[in-house]
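Title: Prediction job returns without error message
Component: structure pipeline
Severity: low
Priority: P3
Assignee: unassigned

Description:
Job completed but the reporter wants confirmation the result is attached to the right record. Sequence as submitted:
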Amino acid sequence: MKIAEVVLNIPIDKTFYYEVPEKLDVKPFLRVNVSFSNKKMIGFILKVLDESELEGKLNFELKSILGLVDNTPVVTKNLLELANWMSTTYLCSFGEALFSFLPIESKGKKFVYNFTTRKDGFKKLTPEQYQAYKIIERSIIKNRSDAFLLYGVTGSGKTEVYKYLVKSALSLGKSVIILVPEISLTPQNLERFYECFGNRVALYHSKMSKRERFYEWMRVFNNEAQIVIGPRSAVFLPTQNLGLIIIDEEHDNSYKSGNSPRYHARDIARYRCLKENATIVFGSATPLIETFYNALRKKFTLLELKNRYSVKLPSVEIIDLKNETYKKSGLLSSKLMENMLFTLQKGKQVLLFLNRRGFAPVLICEKCGYVFECHQCNVSMTFHKKEKRLVCHHCGEKKEVPLKCPSCRSIELKEIGSGTERLEEIIKNLFLNYRVERMDLDTTRGKNSYFEILKKIKRHEVDIVVGTQMIAKGHDISGIELVGVIMPDIMLNIPDFRASERTFSIITQVIGRAGRKDTPGKAFIQTFAAEHYAIKFAAKQDYKNFFLQELKRRKEFNYPPFVKIGRLVIRGIKKDKVEDFCEELGVFLKEEKKNIKDCEILGPVSCPLEKLKNNYRYHIIIKSQNLKNIREEIKKVITFFNASKYKNHIYLEIDIEPLSLI
């Protein structure tokens, strides 16, 4: 009798044995259907053994495999080793790690590319682009797992360098993975590379159907495609003879997974490159503080593109709202409106960035002060005027807007603050003869709605674009000459140690949308925090001085890059259970702190966002110079938790090197 050793997608770090029916031709690395805990699940075969090899180890009756999902393997040995590394690194089970990237489908559906190839897809590189390209190319040729930071101002032509690097890797029989931060940027990048490399390009992202994704996965597995383009999940595709991984806009938060295992695509890519002798390139105009710090310490090779590819950086002016009256629009300064009108009269486009969607972030009763809050998250619900609804942007809960205050029955309800929906309404009322389009999560929910809006903007069927951060990233829209940044204070005031860095980065990115091709652009930043260093240095597009200022602050408060951080979130539906467990855990940790020297343990205390999706949340922050120390302390907390009476009422979220502490 044959027996299969199977791993399942459960948070238990062990494998299970199943009897192999005689009619099934099973082999390692196949997915199978099995019964587990009276449920049908997909398992993954690690080994196929003879019954004699397990003699004396099995003292119970085995269940049989129900059927095959695959006829041929769908992963490589390298990916199995990666899953094992993820399990150790992120403190999850091997099954959770493996199934976080295994394809779901078993049948493919061809994905249709609506692009054509071009013979002139490559532009001549500038001297500094060529120098960066040749330095990285040497590493690819010599099969070295070197890491490079390609730091270049917005519009410096990093993509052109990428294309030449891909060409070099392909000529050596190697494959390439190109990661982009947003699904919305994937088609744009796909077009750029498809016109040069045709069907050798594969696309992979969550907006594709499961069958389309499986089709692309198998094209890569069978070496029919040697270039993979997509967001963070694309880093797992089973490439043959990997030679290069490019992480574009490497600073972006979307490379970090929000679910277990909470991996960062940067770390997965680095691991793959080290194991497979491939070169890695991080590209950004605003690198993560840790990335630039590591480059200065020679952990990465720093390569700079100091000049914009085709035009100078835009001129930028900060408008201090403390000295400004803007009653006419309620949101826009007179100087910004004057420049908008001047730009529009020239036939050019305007982009207005406000990183808050909805009509107003707060609906309040003017008589008694009642604020409409989400009962699942204890935060104010955002008023959406078009839908006539209140929406929680954390859990998605929706409510009809009542006619009266539920507390005092007054009808005097007022919207406080502004979002993109209100800004859109203001613009339409002020600029009656111009076409306005809003681009945020609410207007781009449809499968192709984002790309349809983007096409309209690029065809100049839109005069004024209003949007959130999705309009700030990487889009080359030649007609945009003026950018207005509205209230970046919203981002600065988030209670998180990365708030300044994110604010600087997003302002720099959105300002970079102004002025392309042959026309220099102009930008205005409207803010009450005109003296904040993140605002001032973003206006000057001065990353290096921002980096130095931010580094001082990080050192003062002992944050990365000077320490590593681990975070444990303790959450549960019953507040008293969470609080009681945290009280007991606090006593345990107080004793634990007496015995440790290499870690700083903070908490447990309530999270800044204390209630989220009907869960009450507390967290522990662990700081150390060494991630190994952090993992050891987390393991002790897990052991304490598993031995407690609360384990069926509470859930622990483990986050190694979190990007947010909210």
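Comment from assignee: result matches the submitted record. The longest strand covers residues 599-612.
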